[in-house]
Amino acid sequence: MLQQTRHDMVQYLRPNGWLTDEGKKVWGGLSREQKLDLYRWMVKVRLFDRRAVILQRQGRIGTYAPLEGQEAAQVGSALALGREDWIFPSYREHGVSMIAGMPLAHILLYWMGRVEGNTAPEGVRVLPPYVPIATQMPQAMGAAWASKLKRESSLAIAYFGDGATSEGDFHEACNFAGVFQLPVLFFCQNNQYAISVPFSRQSATSTVAEKGQAYGIPSVRVDGNDVLAVYHVTAEAAERARNGGGATLIEAVTYRQGSHTTADDATRYRDPEEVRIWVEERDPVDRCRRLLEREGLLSEEYIASWEECCKKEIQEAVDAAERAKAPPPTHLFNHVFETLPPSLLRQREELVRKEGGPDGSENPDPRHP
Amino acid sequence: MLQQTRHDMVQYLRPNGWLTDEGKKVWGGLSREQKLDLYRWMVKVRLFDRRAVILQRQGRIGTYAPLEGQEAAQVGSALALGREDWIFPSYREHGVSMIAGMPLAHILLYWMGRVEGNTAPEGVRVLPPYVPIATQMPQAMGAAWASKLKRESSLAIAYFGDGATSEGDFHEACNFAGVFQLPVLFFCQNNQYAISVPFSRQSATSTVAEKGQAYGIPSVRVDGNDVLAVYHVTAEAAERARNGGGATLIEAVTYRQGSHTTADDATRYRDPEEVRIWVEERDPVDRCRRLLEREGLLSEEYIASWEECCKKEIQEAVDAAERAKAPPPTHLFNHVFETLPPSLLRQREELVRKEGGPDGSENPDPRHP
Amino acid sequence: MAVKTLIQGIHDGMREALRQDLRVVVLGEDVGKNGGVFRATEGLWQEFGEERVMDTPLAEAGIVGAAIGMAVNGLRPIAEIQFMGFIYPAFEQIVTHAARLRTRTQGQHPASLVIRAPYGGGIRAPELHSDSTESLFVHIPGLKVVVPSTPADAKGLLLAAVKDPDPVIYLEPMQIYRSVKGEVPDGWHEVPLGKARVLREGEDVTLITWGAMVPLAEKCAQAWAGRGISCEVIDVRSLYPLDEETIIASVKKTGRVVIVHEAPKTAGLGAELTALINEQAFLWLEAPITRVTGFDVPVPMFALENAFRPDQERVDRAISYVTSF
Amino acid sequence: MAVKTLIQGIHDGMREALRQDLRVVVLGEDVGKNGGVFRATEGLWQEFGEERVMDTPLAEAGIVGAAIGMAVNGLRPIAEIQFMGFIYPAFEQIVTHAARLRTRTQGQHPASLVIRAPYGGGIRAPELHSDSTESLFVHIPGLKVVVPSTPADAKGLLLAAVKDPDPVIYLEPMQIYRSVKGEVPDGWHEVPLGKARVLREGEDVTLITWGAMVPLAEKCAQAWAGRGISCEVIDVRSLYPLDEETIIASVKKTGRVVIVHEAPKTAGLGAELTALINEQAFLWLEAPITRVTGFDVPVPMFALENAFRPDQERVDRAISYVTSF
Ligand SMILES: Cc1ncc(C[n+]2csc(CCOP(=O)(O)OP(=O)(O)O)c2C)c(N)n1
Ligand SMILES: Cc1ncc(C[n+]2csc(CCOP(=O)(O)OP(=O)(O)O)c2C)c(N)n1
Ligand SMILES: [Mg+2]
Ligand SMILES: [Mg+2]
């Protein structure tokens, strides 16, 4: 059982690919497919991410926020959620979104500056990426509150970074969640930096987890590059939330191996040696691969064919996104209000006249880009 | 010495008027005048407060926020500050303001809706009352930061209530103070209620003090009706701040004996028995009086003559405030900018024409109402 | 129909909404046991219980953020901000999220919620309690903004706002909470958003206003009627979307316009109304559109609030000006 | 004088301020070691040290609140908000406190500070990075608001803002950060607040604009010059206080006005300019004042930002309209 508050870092899978004793127990409880899924998703997420960075360099998508290094935190937590749970991501949670069911093509569309990329397929409860830091947290809290009031078992999870812990919205969301015992998980990927600002200048505490004490909510610090531990602590917290035990603050200790976004240059503010350690010695994907290989669940051929499979899927998504018919300019007006007031109808007319084209009615269905 | 973080409540003077062992030591270190001052100020503050409530009932001032019950928290802390310290009060800190040097007449003027009441005499570093909850906290933090950057020994103190701890501004201010080790005191009068909302619905923690942990700043919980303990913990925290030791969060546990403001009716939401206990058994003024009487520092005559003296001073302040010449309507424009832009000069002209009177130049000196 | 005050109209609207729509919840500071600092929610906590009427911690971004999340997850929250002067901590949640969530999610999550806030001066409230910053919200695409000035409108606009799938900022002119009385229909009563109310017809001048300035405009119109000048008085009521049709029709009839609002002049809503009329009725104008507004100074403490706010003399001067131009 | 970009002008202004006035400090997210996400503060941390150029935690209310407190205690802070779209968490500190502290303290604490923020679209930035909500700040009494559109003005307005004892919101049109170049005076160079810049004189139409729309207006004016219509182009530059004199003089000369801004139309600053001109130059107007603005929709993601923002075609149409009215 998860202790009320654990600030020593939970780790089941060591950087060298060996399980701890506790880890062995947890691992033993997983099916073969579950074990493989942890790895497969991380690979897919990484390949997607790398491809997106290349697409940006090629000018085919806009500024992009890479997640390389954070795959375990995202995959481990997302796999612990249910379809009915509400996910409030930040701009870096591509891994989470795809696991929850956002088509890869949508994620790419978003970074192509296309709002249709935000549309979730039926039944997928992922909100669009939250760009203004920490603002998703009160909303996730509110969604959880609604679940509780409606006596539904769905929970809400907010994803955010270490920098987000400094915002007032972090505080207000955690406080409400504590007071009302809401089924919400606050999942912090502490990747050590908020753009260039290290966590040591972000907070006088050395961990995010200990901040949970201020809200009377249990918190747990987990090795965010250990996909098994992340999966397990998230699943435990989710279960507690569903059973009326209220919120949990989870700090996944990880590292962004690349720059903040493709517009950023992390070499300006990070020590190369620090980066090297995280990349070479603590990588989340390598670690999981080593374990699976040792357990005979993974062969070189399997890896190769899985990577091939992912690349194909990603390529299809790229094609789909690039083929997706751009909505006409009048699309600007399509979802401002349920019913456009006269002044907006007039403005829309102005645009139609200017475009000299159709009236925008042939707006492609955004769910099938 | 003050421990890093003390969440057991510091108490030196028991409700029955007897000192604890630790209290005896602290008490012994005070001069006769200091001892009497603690009491004298509390009496003056209470008499002022009661008079203000009556003035409101008589329609001579507007809505007023009474502090009765919180005298020890305000007097004890304010007496521990120096003239060079910056004070950022909320709307209930009349006791603090008067100790810092705000003329009583100014405080009354403020509640008469007169902005001149905010003007501090030369050298008095009290900001106007902060009405929007918790907003004074980042500013106090910033003033403290400036002291530190300028290598001055002045500190800043923000006064706020238990409800304020829920606002994002509380969090952001505390966090900066922790990160930059700023000489700022966050002084919370936990009077148990934010208007009608009890602290148990404001926060899932049972104390305010434990919230300090989230910011790596020492915090202390003190009996806010024990003027000696409040004085002492504030003095210690101030000394630490001046010596580069950074911020302290102080929770003074107290009770507002009356309503939130004269527009509120506390009987709607508080249990009369709860009120009775705080009024009859834990009153801060009684407690101090009992101690001083026992020590022979206070006689009935002394009390009577001091009260007389206070009442006279208060009466003079009432007279001064009521006599204070109201500034003309054009005063609206006097301090919007250092130099009025043309559009504002024109608006001012409009008002002058309307008033048909003088041009507002005979604006009385607001420092001498 | 019973005669009620404006705040009773608001109260009735919330009660009706809570009764008829189980998705509706009310949340805010002191709205529960205490019934709200103005008693707008009096008795609702007792009647509907603490799962429908919820006291929150003191945190406006938390309140509005929670309301957005609730709306996403199927509720219809009515969030109370205790005074408009305290809405700013929630500004980001309102302008970045409530206003844009429908667009951002391509219609999937319209953020169907109502944010109520008492606003304006005139009750000698403490400092910083008397802001009228309605134009800030009108400027943000995706929000609707309404202000009732009669008890029936108070109820009708509130219920329309609750039913409306888009986020509505519902501002309550606290000066006339209790001074304005009128009949309020029983049961579910809606006043459509986007429609102004012409409370007095006239030929010579169009007086455009809303909220607590409505009684003032009416008084002025009455006085000028005695002097042979007939004013058409329009209570805008829906600040966004504006009822352009009613406004423009009136201006085309009178050719002279006085706009009265309590907020400071510069970039207040009077500016937008002026621009709109200039665009749509330019050739009908016979005098400059004239604004009578709060001055461009911080809303003063109450000793000077009468000097700050529009009054009969300033409105009269404006009417003289446009009629003798 | 060297030729520099607009962002270099801003950078030079900050450097000069830090050099000449020891009270000046720069604070914000990533402004230190990283030199700002746009490199506006590049090298300043290295030159002046971390007690003058300070990286802060990620909290805008904290940043602005701290800056106010610093100003109270004798410093002259320049606070950077990383993008205007992220200024809203600090809204309360700005509108309730920075704007009003001088009034509230009767002149004792004027909140002398500068808040810088990049604003507007045109650089294909990620979602929610491209707001232009300048009119919100113009509406708040007690604030000054400026927008440079040339490198020299960038430096000159920044130094004037630093020297100005009142709080100044300094907005940076990021689209033209690097595309606009020009000579920038060395040393301390001020451009007075409250003065517009007439960048092109003309007789037929007055084009009023600011920020990244200035080059667009200039281009349109040029094109129309070829067709025999001469446009006077005014870069408002100081959004509050407005240079009414320059604006009104121009309108009285041309009688026809087109206002171009990127922000949504309703209750944008174009409304105030329209109202102002209507009030002060009514009899000189020969056509409705016409606004070309962002549409009243949430600022879109970048794929549609060109459709949202004013462009040459829309401005041309407006010029046709007012000249053929
Ligand atoms: C309210 C707000 N302020 C500033 C920014 C600009 N910004 C974007 S990402 C970022 C750093 C976020 O750091 P962190 O929370 O640690 O998340 P990470 O990017 O490391 O995943 C900043 C300052 C923003 N998006 N929102
Ligand atoms: C930002 C903000 N929200 C709401 C209010 C309305 N209000 C005034 S006092 C108060 C309660 C404050 O409680 P607390 O912080 O405990 O201080 P106390 O009044 O008990 O001294 C509230 C909600 C306000 N002034 N500011
Ligand atoms: Mg981070
Ligand atoms: Mg309290």
UniProtKB/TrEMBL annotation, chains A, B:
GO terms for molecular function: pyruvate dehydrogenase (acetyl-transferring) activity. Keywords: Oxidoreductase, Pyruvate, Thiamine pyrophosphate. InterPro entries: Alpha-ketoacid_DH_E1_comp (IPR050771), DH_E1 (IPR001017), PdhA/BkdA (IPR017596), THDP-binding (IPR029061). CDD domains: TPP_E1_PDC_ADC_BCADC. The keyword Oxidoreductase applies. Residues 39-329 form the Dehydrogenase E1 component domain. One of its GO terms (biological process) is branched-chain amino acid catabolic process. Its EC number is 1.2.4.1. SUPFAM superfamilies: Thiamin diphosphate-binding fold (THDP-binding). Signal peptide: none annotated. It catalyses: N(6)-[(R)-lipoyl]-L-lysyl-[protein] + pyruvate + H(+) = N(6)-[(R)-S(8)-acetyldihydrolipoyl]-L-lysyl-[protein] + CO2. Residues 349-369 are annotated as: Disordered. PANTHER family: 2-OXOISOVALERATE DEHYDROGENASE SUBUNIT ALPHA, MITOCHONDRIAL. NCBIfam families: PDH_E1_alph_x. This is Pyruvate dehydrogenase E1 component subunit alpha. It comes from Marinithermofilum abyssi.
Automatic annotation (TrEMBL), chains C, D:
Its cofactor is thiamine diphosphate. Pfam families: Transket_pyr, Transketolase_C. GO terms for molecular function: oxidoreductase activity. Residues 4-179 form the Transketolase-like pyrimidine-binding domain. It comes from the Bacteria. Keywords: Oxidoreductase, Thiamine pyrophosphate. The keyword Nucleus does not apply. InterPro entries: THDP-binding, Transketo_C/PFOR_II, Transketolase-like_Pyr-bd, Transketolase_C. This is 2-oxoisovalerate dehydrogenase subunit beta.
